[in-house]
């Protein structure tokens, strides 16, 4: 209920101020489990991507959003709960497996799961290599996968910018469902998981028009930070 209250307040304001646009909304099933697999350009992605849909979109967010103390922690918990975020531990190993199980539980409940295969926001607006967790979710749940491409949100609110720029219209393109039934039962095959993930990322590249980089976004961020330190 809280999700719909927050959406009823925030979405009309966002539509009036930023005039967002959408294509392919009809591609998202109106019922049943759905995986929305998207590029990740900005903190604003989830607001504009989910806003056009009549269904609640649940995303997996880092646990730190929900563990803060005091007034700031309270506001953070209320905010992320209100936009449909479920807390997970993203430290790797067993934590990654727990995140996968959380995603499968959401899909088993026939809900919409929004996931960003890149794992983190793009540092420069390009599309980076996807992690194979999305493929495991797709094959184990057998839920339809809808590529979910954000457009212009990097220019509007790139990582590190606290407030969005005005005058830039953000958009979202929902692609047609991708059929992975030929891979069902093969979710433990690493080559299959990579093939499924790469097919999703290719669909996102076509929808978004982004340049693709065959490396993980987290690695690119580390390289950029290291280079900045060496040059300082």
UniProtKB/TrEMBL annotation:
Q: Where does the record place a coiled coil?
A: none
Cite the InterPro entries for this sequence.
Answer: Plipid/glycerol_acylTrfase
Alphabetically sorted, this entry's keywords are: Acyltransferase, Transferase
Any single GO molecular-function term of the entry would be: 1-acylglycerol-3-phosphate O-acyltransferase activity
Specify the superkingdom: Bacteria
* SUPFAM superfamilies found in the cross-reference section: Glycerol-3-phosphate (1)-acyltransferase
Domain Phospholipid/glycerol acyltransferase positions: 34-153
Give the record's GO biological process terms: phosphatidic acid biosynthetic process
Kindly list the GO CC terms recorded for this protein: plasma membrane
Q: What is this protein called?
A: 1-acyl-sn-glycerol-3-phosphate acyltransferase
User: Where does this protein come from, organism-wise?
Assistant: Microbispora rosea
């Amino acid at each position: 209920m809280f999700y719909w209250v927050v959406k009823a307040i925030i979405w009309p304001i966002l539509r009036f101020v930023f005039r967002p646009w959408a294509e392919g909304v009809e591609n998202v099933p109106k019922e049943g489990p759905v995986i929305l697999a998207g590029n990740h350009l900005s903190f604003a992605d989830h607001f504009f991507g989910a806003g056009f849909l009549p269904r609640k979109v649940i995303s997996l967010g880092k646990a730190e959003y929900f563990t803060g103390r005091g007034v700031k922690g309270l506001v953070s918990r209320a905010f992320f709960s209100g936009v449909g975020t479920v807390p997970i531990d993203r430290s790797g190993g067993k934590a990654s497996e727990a995140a996968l199980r959380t995603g499968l539980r959401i899909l088993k409940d026939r809900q919409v799961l929004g996931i960003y295969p890149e794992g983190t926001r793009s540092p420069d607006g390009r599309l980076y290599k996807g992690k194979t967790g999305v493929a495991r979710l797709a094959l184990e749940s057998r839920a339809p996968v809808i590529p979910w491409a954000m457009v212009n949100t990097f220019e509007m609110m790139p990582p590190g910018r606290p407030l969005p720029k005005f005058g830039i219209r953000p958009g979202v393109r929902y692609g047609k469902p991708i059929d992975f039934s030929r891979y069902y039962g093969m979710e433990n095959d690493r080559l299959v998981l990579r093939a499924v993930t790469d097919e999703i990322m290719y669909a996102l590249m076509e929808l978004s028009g982004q340049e693709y980089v065959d490396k993980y976004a987290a690695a690119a961020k580390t390289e950029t930070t290291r280079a900045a330190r060496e040059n300082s």
